[in-house]
Design brief:
With 323 residues, the protein is mainly alpha-helical. Helix 2 runs antiparallel to helix 12 and helix 10 packs antiparallel against helix 12. The relative contact order is 0.21. It is built from 15 helices and no strands. The chain has one domain. Helices cover 74% and strands 0% of the residues.
Length: 323
Amino acid sequence: MTSPEITAPARVAGDTPTAPPAEQPRNWPIIAAAGTTVLLWASAFVGIRFAGHDYSPGAMALGRMVAASVALSAFVALTAAARRRSRRAEPAPADPRHRAGRPLGLIALWGVAWFGGYNVALNAAERLVDAGTAALLVSVAPILVAVAAVLVLGERLTRRLGLGVTVAFAGVALIAASGFTGHADALGVTLAVLSALLYAFGVLLQKRLLTRVDAVTMTWLGALAGTLALLPFAPTLLAELAAAPLPATLGTLYLGVFPTAIGFLTWGYVLSHWTAGRTTAATYLVPPVTVLLSWTLLGEVPAPLALAGGALSLAGVVLATRR
């Protein structure tokens, strides 16, 4: 961009000085929303590990989603009431994304896969591996998104993508071989990788659907669909709720209200304004934050080899997805 001093016309005597053009403001609301998502999602790995001692994977997922659905329903009701009160002179123009109709079936599939399948798989994984291991293994999801774009969408396999995939999975192999705290569990690693697959599927489908429905509506309907899919775990949840200590129950409620309801609202907001690649790149910060939180709150000290594997994996993800 040419500097204002060069482009500004010469002043004539008596003219008012021309003010230099204002700098383009940063998208601080989007950046703040991305930071909120990163912090809340990182805390979710620690919360799952904490509550998982007293709640089984399916029961914890259902309890989390019941809390999330209640919080999201209240938010949708409040925003709808505020919107009705604000319509004084004339109604606001309709969002063009709504005119195409709401693809309820695909939203339900997204909710079942992410809020149902992902939560159960991750909860089960964290009964066998520590929070840092789970977060680092799930962080390969951007690689899976990039590979899916090549296989499904016909995008070109670049040298950068191929090298990034190789580096990232070399890091995953190191983590899987040693475990983040010095011991590994094959089933736990497999479940964490399954979580990453469901994560990647959710990102691809959500980005496509956000062109037809707003982020709040999609998150709310997806949460309801995920909750319905988890209802078979209701008897187990009721039994464990009666026996679990209060901190574990509060941890499950926290998972529903904060990382799920608030975290997915901010995630949807960011994803609707940024590209899928840029949004997913923001989540590179989730594993390091998770490691710090689990180290501080749970005393899970990372092993040196696993730290090297985590750094290698994240480097591969950045290499593969960075433009």
